[in-house]
Amino acid sequence: MAGFIEGIDRGQSVLFPDRLADWISEDSLVRVVDFFVEDLDLQPKTEA
After folding, report:
1. Residues 6 or more apart whose Cβ sits within 8 Å of residue 23
2. What is the per-residue pLDDT across 1-48, written as a single tens digit (0 to 9) for each?
3. 16 and 22 in contact (C-beta within 8 Å)?
């Protein structure tokens, strides 16, 4: 039977960090894609 794992906060209230960006490295391709997609105009075009 496994014992208590020392160094782990048993009172931790969340599984993931507050921001997903905290888990992504600074030189990850995901950051480039995120930057590109953020600048896209995704609003539907309406005929005037």
Report:
1. 16, 17
2. 566 666 666 676 777 667 878 888 999 999 999 999 999 988 888 876
3. no
DSSP 44: P
In sequence order, the 6+-apart residues with CB closer than 8 A to the CB of 3 are none
Residue with tokens 């997903």: 20
Contacts of residue 24, Cβ cutoff 8 Å, sequence gap at least 6: 30, 31
Please tell me the distance from the alpha carbon of residue 3 to that of residue 6, in angstroms, as a whole number: 9
Residue with tokens 């960006």: 21
Tell me the two tokens of residue 35: 């930057």
